[in-house]
Amino acid sequence: MKNNNGQVFNQLIQDISAGDIPNVLLLFGEEAFLTDWAEGQLVKRYVTEAAKALDLTKFEPGSLKTDDLIGACETMPMFSERKVVVVSSASDIDKEAEAYIRTVPDSCLLIIKGVDEKSGKDAKKLSKSLKDACGIYEFGPISERELKQFIAKRFRTAGKSISPGAAALLISNCGYMNKEIDYALYNLENDIRKMIAYSGSDVITEEDVMAGLSDNIEHNVFKMLDAISENKKDIAFTMLHEMILSGSNEHRILATIAGQLELMLQARQMSEKGMGKKQIASKLKVHEFRVEKAMKFARRYDERDLVRMLGSAFYTDEKIKSGLLDAGLALEMLIAGI
């Protein structure tokens, strides 16, 4: 199994170049963007562009039938090096299909996607013996260095560049490095597209970045807490209502508020013990930009205030989960109380 993303990228390309690709591959992990990228690289290598209609078969989730799978895999490629068959969801594979998969001919490359062993999603549908017999590439979240490269490449492909300051702002505010936020590369790519559309020049500015991240929950929650710290609760209430109206889930908003407050409290406590920004970031396993923002906020309160605010967030969560309070009303009461 190959599961270090930086190495996975290179290893996949090397394996393709060397022709070291087995008959069946499992592509899985938390990053759907990267499993789709890997699929694209494999199709590009083995299927002639003009022959895709004949030599590429893709089963979308819920559409797989074992007889159809067998028929697709047993069909010889017409104009391509290999027939490529893609099963988009491993959960569609039953025992009969699994038994056949062990016999896929050399003329075919069967790609199975949607297996995420970390979350357990779909992984239980495939036996260990089958997984052991296949080539496996796991794509999880990328590192900060890889994230910088990803961002630069997306802007470069669009004929634009991004300044180091704007790139740092994007990384610190997009939420990708925050494990508590459901924000993946597809989310980032969509935000980058908004920045490109918003920008009127060839260089992406910090203003472009913030315009593109307008719908990001983590960024909006921090701005909301910032408004509260400046005693501008009317602005905080407006921001809360805008987030809810835009479709943001109240439970995610509350979880983000609690996560931000917890980070602020921990950062303050560690700072008072003499730890620097980098040490705190390393200890808490978060991006140091987040620590910097948290410390700036935390300085406006003493430790008792932060403990009280965090306790209020946990109390609000309990009331919502127990059904004693409507989520929207509970969030309004939380903001009013802190």
Total individual domains: 3
Helix content range: 55-70%
By CATH, the topology of the largest domain is Rossmann fold
Number of DSSP E strands:
7
Query: What is the H/E string?
Result: HEHHEHEHEHEHEHHEHHHHHHHH
The secondary structure category is alpha/beta
- Major sheet size, sense and barrel closure: 5 strands, parallel
DSSP helical segment count: 17
Average per-residue pLDDT, rounded, comes to 87
Choose one word for the global shape: elongated
Strand order of the largest sheet: 2-3-4-1-5
- The N- and C-terminal alpha carbons lie at a distance of 48 Å
Q: Provide the gyration radius in Å.
A: 24 Å
- Top-tier CATH class of the largest domain: Alpha Beta
Low-confidence stretches: none
Instruction: Let me know the CATH homologous superfamily of the largest domain.
Output: P-loop containing nucleotide triphosphate hydrolases
Q: How much of the residues is beta strand, in percent?
A: 5-15%
- CATH architectural category of the largest domain: 3-Layer(aba) Sandwich
Which descriptors would you attach to this protein?
338 residues; alpha/beta; Rossmann fold; Helicase, Ruva Protein, domain 3; Zinc Finger, Delta Prime, domain 3; 5-stranded parallel β-sheet; two-stranded parallel ribbon; 9% strand
Detailed description of the structure:
Helix 13 packs across helix 15 (288-298), helix 13 (250-272) runs antiparallel to helix 16 (303-321) and helix 14 crosses helix 15 (288-298). The protein starts with a helix and ends with a helix. The protein contains 17 helices and seven strands. It has 338 residues and is an alpha/beta fold. Helix 5 (95-101) links the parallel strand 3 (83-87) and strand 4 (108-115). The mean pLDDT is 87. 59% of the residues lie in helices and 9% in strands. It folds into three domains: 5-138, Rossmann fold; 144-212, Orthogonal Bundle (Helicase, Ruva Protein, domain 3); 217-337, Zinc Finger, Delta Prime, domain 3. The chain has helices at residues 5-18, 32-46, 52-55, 66-74, 95-101, 128-132, 144-157, 164-174, 185-198, 206-212, 217-229, 233-245, 250-272, 277-284, 288-298, 303-321, 327-337; strands at 24-28, 56-59, 83-87, 108-115, 135-138, 161-162, 203-204. The strands form two sheets. The protein has a five-stranded parallel sheet with strand order 2-3-4-1-5, with helices on both faces. The protein is elongated and about 70 Å long.
